[in-house]
Amino acid sequence: MPASQYVLPGLVVALSLPYLASLSTFVQNHLIKRCTIADYRLSPQSYALITGASDGIGRGIALELVKRGFNVVIHGRNREKLEKVKGELEALGTGGDVKILLVDSGEENVDWEGIGKELEGLEITILVNNAGGMAMPSVSFDAQSYTTIEFALRLNALFPLHLTHLLLGRMRALPGPTAVLFIGSIAAEVPPPYMQAYACSKSFLRTLARSLSFDERRLLHSRVQVHYIQTANVQTKLGVNAAQSWDTPDPESYGRAVVRVVGCGTREVCPWWAHALERGMIGAMGEATAESVMLSALGKPKGE
């Protein structure tokens, strides 16, 4: 048989490999994998630190971790909201300790020395970098105030960078597996209109997670698992995702999904099955089509 007859089948196989790999990962993470979060509870003194835990995804993750026997440190900038969440967590009756870390993640001069002392001595085995967000601007990037842009960058990129830098060595030194999670966003792949500061911050976290994972696995041979949690729509009390649906889970359901994928071996993972499917479709449809879908979903004119 002439060699040319192998070219087309070989090309088809080569082009199919990425999709087959994605399908294999989807089946493994969503249909086969069992929750291994108990492996990260090294002792009765193990804590999980969840930033942005006064509401939404952070609160959902904290609820699930407390149910699974972890002590938690919940972070936020509003003490009243944090005290309310603390009461909810303690009411679960697991006997776990709940501590509050009160810090404004977006402020210019965070007291990192003070945070270090406040967390000193805690066996933190899971760090969830969840704090973030940005109200969708109604004006173009150049018309936004630089104060707004800088705040978004500090909140979404610099705060998780500094916090991970502060705790990573301590977590690596523990005698068992630990995990660092960065809550990402589909905005890093299909940026919403006018949200350049937010989108590039999530891309920053994506690259940070990849680089840290490379070091921990290949150079330091540590037991630190690093995950970039790719997130699409999750239900919020206010805003465009107010209604729950098959592709827009409530924060508690999403929190359970996040906890379940910890330790799955996949650095970049979509905990919610519908988000994984949507991400695959976005990757297949091309940039221009993905942008048009985004504009249609937001009710904005597609332009040229």
TrEMBL record:
Listed GO molecular functions?
oxidoreductase activity
Q: In which pathway does it act?
A: Lipid metabolism; fatty acid biosynthesis
Pfam families hit by this protein: adh_short (PF00106)
User: Which residues belong to the signal peptide in this entry?
Assistant: 1-23
Does this UniProt record's set of keywords contain Transcription regulation? Answer: no
Q: Which UniProt keywords apply?
A: Fatty acid biosynthesis, Fatty acid metabolism, Lipid biosynthesis, Lipid metabolism, NADP, Oxidoreductase, Signal
**Does Signal count among this protein's keywords?**
yes
GO CC annotations, alphabetized:
endoplasmic reticulum
Q: Which domain of life is it from?
A: Eukaryota
Q: Name one GO biological process term.
A: fatty acid elongation
Task: Output this protein's name.
Answer: NAD(P)-binding protein
